[in-house]
Specification:
5 strands; 5-stranded mixed β-sheet; single chain; globular; Isochorismatase-like domain-containing protein; 144 residues; Rossmann fold; 26% helix; 5 helices; alpha/beta
Length: 144
């Protein structure tokens, strides 16, 4: 789990009292294609984490990476993964937490290619973002 602070000023008013920061959890690309023997237990653990921490976050958002036939990954790397449900589908265990308002589909590693995610974070007054995902070097770091 990684925490990021967005433009955080805990004492702008000069009041030394600690201000409660609004928190979001970003569940990044928890998709079937990232499962392997080392991560096979992760879907159940993520579901349990989400259930145990229901009230801890003011907002829970999900991202889903989708590859396309004319993507840069195909064009330059000839990589054709994550084009179908078998690989790009979300873990069954997290689908009950996902809806059209909290799922952001993306066609590259980073989540800030457009302003959709950032706008939702700003609109909801989020100052602290926790990140959760599997492919740390591709999915998590490009978000952070």
């Amino acid at each position: 789990m990684i925490k990021i602070f967005i433009n955080c000023h805990s004492c702008e008013s000069g009041n030394p009292e600690k201000i409660k920061m609004r928190k979001a959890l970003m569940v990044i690309d928890l998709q079937k294609g990232f499962l392997c023997p080392l991560t096979k237990e992760l879907p159940k653990k993520v579901k349990n984490f989400l259930l145990r921490n229901k009230g801890k976050f003011d907002l829970v958002l999900f991202t889903q990476y989708l590859n396309r036939p004319k993507s840069q990954f195909v064009k330059f790397l000839n990589w054709r993964g994550f084009m179908d449900e078998k690989e790009n589908g979300l873990f069954e265990e997290i689908k009950l937490f996902v809806n059209k308002n909290n799922l952001f589909k993306k066609y590259t590693y980073g989540s800030f290619v457009d302003d959709k995610v950032l706008n939702v974070l700003k609109k909801n007054g989020i100052k602290e973002v926790w990140l959760m995902g599997i492919a740390t070097e591709n999915c998590i770091l490009t978000f952070a």
